[in-house]
Amino acid sequence: MKPELPRRTYDSLRAVAEDFLAKHHPTRLPPVPIEEIADLQFKLHIIPIPGLLSDQETDGFLSSAMTEISIDEFVYQNRPARARFTIAHELSHIILHRKLYEGHSFRTTDEWKEFVRSMDEETYGWAEWQAKTLAGL
Known about the structure:
The chain is mainly alpha-helical. The chain is built from 7 helices and 3 strands, in the order H-H-E-H-E-E-H-H-H-H. A hairpin with a 5-residue loop joins strand 2 (60-62) and strand 3 (68-72).
């Protein structure tokens, strides 16, 4: 049985963002140190991968164990704002979509793509909108 993805509103995601910032970055001084939060507080390993964006058409993805964020090496080294958003986006999946990842096993790009293809379009669309929205907030 596939897990239901709650349909979260923008306002509910804003509340999640407020709670997150209160706990993990209470000063709220920009920029939010999202890489340090991911690394030190969530114990996530950030793994730069050469050609991830050009070869696989993605800036990054989260491992099924929710312990690693793979990110395009060029983006990570040369586009700090985009890299920070990508890390925030993948961290948002942990916060919002843990149940979607449970019971799956993937670590490579090809395995991740197979996981994405296993979702129906509506579920994937909602999951991505929610993660992008929370990352931006």
